[in-house]
């Protein structure tokens, strides 16, 4: 049995940021990682994926992007190198190839059982991520066996798919990127669209995330919202990171030949049924986007910066088309693959502590878990809107490291 004051589970950006803050506070700790550093970035992403955030926004405590393309978007190998370099510079105590199989309560802390033995610790930080398992709706059971089904975690590239058309379910960041890539490879693509967050890549000469950073939208605190649980469930922004900084929205996807349909509500006998609310979802997304653009314009005006940026403008309303189908026969339409871009969920099957709600999510207050000395990092809108981005890991880790340190000091007094 080995003992350490704090164990961090996961060596992604959140775990590494927490490690840096614990090191600064002279708190001994280990990071247990099932694979290698940045494991999910290495193994659970499709080949062409780039970050949605500009390179300049890749910031961790005491470390930031310093390359020659600050407005570009890192590829996955570049993200891995970025995090590896950070781990090296901070001398992060990472134990790789160590799969956690159980965490349970013991006197004065936790016992962590792994593929490499057992540790005990006083405090525990769960930084294993929010995207461990693809969330597949139960109606997927209605797919015929001859149709290949994948989650976005399993997809790698168009030529790895069976011949034939593809239906993608979900039109947030992942769904629109996969639809664009697969259609460009020459396949027929049907995109099932539910609630989404429309967002231009650039506005008034700047990246939209530059604007959200400047006006303080990324730093909105979880405690400021009336319904934080809804905010945490919102779809990801409809953005794609490309060298050309292109905007990808439903309008240009439809014009490229992708067939838009509503939210998938049923599957039976190879027939898919869709909601008739597509137009309403699109109108609501347009409304919310325009509210954000109006807040940017108001910020520019309030700071007397009108002359420094191009004039304000608005984007063409989303046109879902006049012939939107409410049903589709997968066989007749040539659909041979369905990709579920319907979100993700964390995997806490190893957590033998009563801190999960009925949906398997950790109950926490801004990262402070409902168990003594336990913390969680890297979840959507955990403390701020930017919590699930690389740029948000440092601020969240700083707060929780202070809370953890104070707890240890109280226990020692």
Characteristic terms for this protein:
single chain; alpha/beta; FAD/NAD(P)-binding domain; eight-stranded mixed beta sheet; five-stranded parallel beta sheet
Briefly say what this structure is.
By secondary structure, the chain is an alpha/beta fold. It has helices spanning 13-24, 39-43, 76-89, 173-184, 208-214, 228-233, 250-255, 278-302, 390-412; strands at residues 2-9, 29-32, 59-60, 63-64, 94-95, 100-106, 109-114, 117-126, 133-134, 148-151, 165-169, 189-192, 197-198, 202-203, 206-207, 237-238, 259-261, 264-268, 271-274, 327-329, 335-340, 344-345, 351-352, 364-365, 368-369, 374-376. It is 27% helix and 23% strand.
Could you explain the architecture of this structure?
This protein has 413 residues and is of the alpha/beta class. It folds into two domains: 2-132 and 346-412, 3-Layer(bba) Sandwich (FAD/NAD(P)-binding domain); 135-340, 3-Layer(bba) Sandwich (FAD/NAD(P)-binding domain), CATH 3.50.50. The protein contains nine helices and 26 strands. It has helices spanning 13-24, 39-43, 76-89, 173-184, 208-214, 228-233, 250-255, 278-302, 390-412; strands spanning 2-9, 29-32, 59-60, 63-64, 94-95, 100-106, 109-114, 117-126, 133-134, 148-151, 165-169, 189-192, 197-198, 202-203, 206-207, 237-238, 259-261, 264-268, 271-274, 327-329, 335-340, 344-345, 351-352, 364-365, 368-369, 374-376. The chain starts with a strand and ends with a helix.
